[in-house]
Description:
Elements: E1 2-6, H1 11-16, E2 28-31, E3 34-38, E4 42-48, H2 54-60, E5 69-74, H3 82-87, E6 93-96, H4 102-116, E7 121-124, H5 136-142, E8 147-153, H6 161-164, H7 168-185, E9 196-200, H8 201-206, H9 217-228, E10 232-237, H10 251-272
Parallel strand pairs: 1-3, 4-5, 4-7, 5-6, 8-10
Antiparallel strand pairs: 2-3, 7-9, 8-9
Amino acid sequence: MQLETVTLLNCRSALKRKSSLILKQDGCCKTKGHVYTVFMKVVVLMPAYRAGKRVVETFRKIPRELVEEVIIVDDKSPDNNETFELAKTLPARVYQNERNLGYGGNMKGMLRKALETDGDIFFELHADGQYNGGDLSKVLAALKPTDGMLLGSRLLEGGTAREAGMSLIKYVVNIILTWIANVSLGTRLTEFQTGFRVYTRPFLERVNFEANSNDHLFSFETILQAIYHGFTITEIAVVCEYPPGVTQMGLRKGIKYTAEMLWTLARYHLARAGRKDPVF
């Protein structure tokens, strides 16, 4: 029986796109007397802002044997180039924006760079060390062929939001906003506000992420884009830490985000009803 190595998430895609790259994720499918060994080529995306030495610590936790490439982009951190210079010591592709673009603006540029690679899976891992790159093995085990995204939830059973230091008010607000979104969308996600996010190539090639916000709303918009275009979303429980110095959303930005989130939900339903919207 002939054995071939291919590089996508399922047999149908595998038959269209073959590669001789090293096996990264076990799995196989059979068709017409052939066995196709299927794996996912992973690219890690590390957006960085005032991360300092945490960019190095976060990088070291990435299981490199599962990763083809790491891309780090410093969003013009106001730290005398400390984050950027430390990132350049790592075996990764490192860039710095000419000006601060905001979280969403930085992610758009990173996703453009990601699509220039031949990666299949793109793991967004913030350089501040809140999430553990070692959870990548759990990601690869959980991803399904129909997924557009995978989210690491701090609120799923096994997550450690409160134990890790999330304030009670943020914990409650997170639960309320998630409940509102689930009721509106008919979904059952346990968290929409997580920073642990994984994108698949079919999803990124389908949606117009360039139309999304340049701010934190970007992450919520991508989830709605996945749902709108019929992709599934998988969740896994993750541990989140809140080390000193990590940038967090303040009260004013939190109120602004909540208002924008509610308006985005309204826009989603208007798009479903036929109104043209560049995000959807």
